[in-house]
Amino acid sequence: MWYVSTRGMAPRVDFEGALFSGYAPDGGLFMPEELPQLGIETLHQWSALSYPSLVKELCTLFIGPELIPKEVLNDLIDRAFSRFRHREVVHLSRLRNGLNVLELWHGATYAFKDLSLCCTAQFLQYFLEKKEKHITVVVGTSGDTGSAAIESVQGTKNIDIIVLLPKGHCTKIQELQMTTVLRENVHVFGVEGNSDELDEPIKAVFADVAFVKKHNLMSLNSINWARVLVQMAHHFFAYFRCAPSLDTCPLPPVEVVVPTGAAGNLAAGCIAQKMGLPIRLVAAVNHNDIIHRTVQQGDFSLSAAVEPTLASAMDIQVPYNMERIFWLLSGSDSQGTRTLMEQFERTQSMSLPKELHSKLSGAMTSESMSDEAITWTMSRCWEENQYLLCPHSAVAVGYHYQQMDRQQPSFPRCCLAPASAAKFPEAVLAAGLNPETPAEILALELKETRCTPMRKGDDWTMMLRDTIESLGWQQRGHFLSAPK
User: Fold this and answer.
1) Catalytic (active-site) positions
2) For residue 146, which of 99, 163, 426, 449 is within the disulfide window of CB 3.0 to 4.6 Å?
3) Could you write out the three-class secondary structure of 336-355?
4) pLDDT in tens, 50-84
């Protein structure tokens, strides 16, 4: 399986190359050169599989045994999911009035990003140990990515991780999950800015190709192909658990509602769709609605500013995985995708060509939810089911209630739940409900913290480069002092 850049100006790479690259050298994102097509027979066979087994099947298709032999791959995935709290790894809760909630948050940090990042970390470790190589991972986070990335690599001898978090824009629990990890290979910065602003120094560092190469830098944000690959399993699992029957031809559709910020989960759903999975996608966003405007009007342009919302991990203005979706729906048109994205980068505004917009609105619909709608949804779900939603899950469930109250005829529907309500006690209280906080989360309050400030007026890019340089010197020191 080969991977090409969405912008078409970079050499193609294998899975290992895509895994370690993050952005392609031409600024694009890696995508499979060809997508495997799954027939009804394969879907029938997969329909009885557990979530980990679906991940194994998908990874086998997109990685190839010449890079990771199948038995080794299966073992890496088993190891990745070994610490999840639920025996199924993910769990479907069937609630009143046709509400299906797929809980993706049973990992160590109570968020869906544990699923893809624990697998990605295992793949990285496999290749690094084979080559006796060290890397430095740089992550910008709006809340959950940072803690899940730290959890997946903390204590690892051949990976250092640098995380930039937006100070005051995460919940207290999200922040503590990052700042209380005192391992030698974990380096956390608290940035006086929002998640889009902290992405700027990261992008500036990665634009220096020689520097990236010298220090073996990589990103674990949702631009990384391995994360999108694992997230495809959410859509297959949701379909197989919610489809009424697989005995009809054509297979019945299922609507999958995806609460989204950077559009990684959405891109995964679009790829699954293109492979033959009969899902209808709904992109559910908060007040920061660039994806909603793009789907509805073809308007891919920045608002004046990111507005803080209760669904804080989705407070994103630049959903970079939309580039993957544009490329996919345009029939792998790299030149067209490059032109569109370069215009967006230049002007922060771009109108989709009519044909591409038509394909996008054919592949998905969308909805935007206010904070009022989020708290109302959380409250209603509790009243009807005694079930606590996190504010991001409420963005998806709010769409379900909207459709139900309009008495719209619909297909079976599955709402993805990206995080546990336990991480968002402030939002639970805002909904007039009582938070339920697990003991391990309460214990974070008592732990020592470590976080380096990046203040307004500081040169964030230089601070990041200096940290990477100093880690490079430490690594060379370890190498020179290691016994021969």
Assistant:
1) 113
2) 163
3) HHHHHHHHHHHHCEEECCHH
4) 999 999 999 999 999 999 999 999 999 999 999 99
pLDDT value, residue 482: 53
* Tokens matching residue 245: 């029957």
Cβ atoms of 280 and 254 closer than 8 Å? yes
Pick from 48, 100, 54, 97: nearest CA to 77:
54
Residue 437 has pLDDT above 70, yes or no: yes
